[in-house]
Design brief:
Layout (H helix, E strand, L loop, with lengths): L2 H22 L1 H8 L9 H10 L6 E4 L5 H7 L6 E5 L2 H14 L4 E4 L13 E7 L9 H11 E12 L24 E3 L2 E2 L7 E2 L3 E3 L4 H10 L2 E9 L20 E8 L3
Parallel strand pairs: 1-2, 1-4, 2-3, 4-5
Antiparallel strand pairs: 5-11, 6-9, 7-8, 10-11
């Protein structure tokens, strides 16, 4: 399979997932976003956005799902905010959430590798979070897109699951199941949904393991200078929540901030 084939398979999976979440997660979010104080951002995200100075900044979120995080960033005082996602069904949910909260955010349905060049150089901040990178078959191409979207001096902020978690199966704890240097994608079908395990996703999806060196090196190769990097012992994925209680635990997530060099 090539990049487009993997991407299309994952698009089908996310549209199927959106149908489940429309009945499980969406009603609660619609209600919560009516409260002008509601946010999905945790203390780490708030601190980093505060440090970046998000007030009035133009922000893009790649693989935004239903846009709940981007809507929360807008409520921090960001300027123009644009969310990109390949799933038209999740984009439709994002529009509903924005309407519910009366939040002015744009949503664009697009394959991340095919984001129109009209968006090049538009953004002060590109934001990526929670299980986005693992769906990407081509990380080098992805960082090329990030680099062209950012203005000179613009910032990439990643808050993601730690890739070391790909070595384990959540159900079996810290028993090593996979190599950290695994290059073939994980193929999944008929998996339980992460919000409602009683419902299953029938379509086949592909998850790609990217080492930390792939992420950090990918930034550096595209002219993005590392500003900060931190690892944490809390889970943001909902999948490895049990690992938080372990006495001896691996890193569970990380934050990375990188700045595009001035031309």
């Amino acid at each position: 399979m090539n990049r487009d084939s993997y991407t299309e398979a994952n698009r089908v999976t996310w549209n199927e997932t959106a149908g489940i979440h429309a009945g499980v997660e969406l009603p609660g979010l619609l209600r919560k976003f009516r409260d002008p104080e509601f946010t999905t951002l945790d203390t780490i995200e708030k601190e980093i956005f505060s440090r970046l100075g998000v007030e009035g900044k133009v922000v893009a979120q790649l693989s935004c799902n239903n846009g709940r995080e981007l809507l929360s960033v807008k409520r921090l005082g960001a300027g123009r905010c644009v969310g990109f996602d390949i799933s038209d069904a999740f984009i439709a949910q994002g529009l509903k959430l924005a309407q519910s909260g009366q939040i002015d955010v744009e949503f664009v349905c697009a394959d991340v590798y095919q984001i129109p060049q009209t968006y090049d150089g538009n953004f002060d901040i590109v934001y990526v979070t929670i299980g986005a990178l693992g769906w990407l078959p081509d990380l080098d191409g992805y960082f090329s897109v990030v680099a062209r979207l950012l203005r000179p001096g613009g910032t990439l902020f990643i808050y993601e699951m730690h890739p070391v978690l790909d070595m384990f199966d959540a159900e079996t704890g810290l028993e090593i199941a996979h190599s950290y240097f695994k290059s073939e994608p994980f193929e999944s079908s008929d998996d339980p949904d992460y919000y409602d395990p009683s419902q299953r996703i029938s379509s086949t999806s592909y998850w790609f393991h990217h080492k930390l060196s792939d992420v950090i090196g990918g930034c550096l190769q595209k002219g993005l200078s590392l500003i900060s990097f931190e690892e944490y012992d809390h889970d943001i994925s909902m999948v490895y929540r049990a690992f938080e209680k372990l006495e001896h635990k691996p890193p569970l997530c990380y934050s990375l901030v990188a700045r595009k060099n001035n031309d």
